[in-house]
Design brief:
The protein is an alpha/beta fold and 283 residues long. 50% of the residues lie in helices and 14% in strands.
Length: 283
């Protein structure tokens, strides 16, 4: 973990939000969320472990979600008061693991299509096709990275999550950043598929949970969001018709407003009138 991106709201007695980005992104992904939360919340958006730091796992033990979560546990432990966790895709899976490690500290969860692929193996025949689909993607990306072809790996990865042709439509700078990320992708897939946490652990979380998914997203994360809605005690699932898996980026303002509304409800904060109008429009 290389940086902490602080959003709106100075340290102090405010609602604290820790937001975790998707694979290949950074804490800056949550700039719109900082605006939506306003001054009554303190947003912390750390960068997760990045590709230059992955060498220690290449010839050693397998990389696990526990490795990603360890520095985040330190962040939560250092904060004064309950924390609302936000996560997108890989960041959503990490947030789930973090919530299980510090359940008493978590005031709420807002998760957009968490890529908790390990849950698919517990879903029997219903989850098997989705599990095979994501295993195929992971195998292809891993082969490309092993062959030293980070460009092919990035194309495969981006086109899966964003739709065919998405890689060709990207600008050079985002392409370069994603190619730099790709050596970590196989480690993340391994961690997400081999995570030992069982579904029962999530049923023990008592905080309010907002699950979000885009109806244009891929099947595996759709199945996971639906399964979590069933497993978790206080969860609601919101679906966005015109969004896909990358909704927090492609529909950043709408997703941020949904998260801000959930944080406000969980914290008992009064909502601003203009934001109420926007949230009603989203619904």
């Amino acid at each position: 973990m290389s940086k902490l991106h602080a959003g709106a709201g100075a340290p102090g007695k405010k609602s604290i939000v820790v937001a975790l980005h998707c694979s290949g992104s950074s804490g800056r992904q949550w700039n719109k969320l900082a605006s939506a939360l306003g001054e009554r919340c303190r947003l912390i958006a750390p960068d997760l472990i990045r590709s230059p730091a992955v060498a220690q796992w290449r010839a050693g033990r397998p990389f696990r979600l526990a490795d990603e979560t360890a520095p985040l546990v330190d962040i939560v432990d250092a904060l004064d008061g309950p924390v609302h966790l936000v996560g997108h895709s890989y960041g959503g899976a990490v947030a789930l693991r973090l919530a299980c490690e510090r359940p008493a500290r978590i005031a709420g969860l807002s998760l957009y299509e968490p890529s908790a692929f390990f849950l698919l193996q517990w879903m029997g025949a219903q989850g098997r096709p989705a599990l095979q689909e994501i295993q195929s993607l992971a195998a292809g990306v891993t082969r490309d990275v092993a062959a030293g072809d980070d460009s092919a790996a990035a194309r495969r990865f981006v086109d899966y999550w964003n739709g065919a042709g998405a890689w060709d439509g990207m600008k050079m700078q985002p392409k370069a950043e994603l190619m730099n990320y790709m050596p970590k992708a196989p480690l993340e897939f391994g961690a997400l598929l081999d995570e030992p946490t069982r579904p029962f652990a999530f049923s023990r979380l008592t905080c309010p949970v907002l699950l979000m998914r885009g109806l244009r997203g891929p099947t595996p994360t759709a199945r996971i969001a639906q399964e979590l809605r069933t497993i978790m005690r206080n969860a609601v699932l919101e679906e966005m018709r015109d969004a896909g898996h990358m909704g927090p980026l492609s529909h950043a303002e709408r997703v941020s407003e949904m998260i801000a509304a959930h944080v406000s409800r969980a914290a008992g904060l009064d909502r601003l009138p203009e934001r109420d109008a926007r949230r009603q429009a989203v619904a």
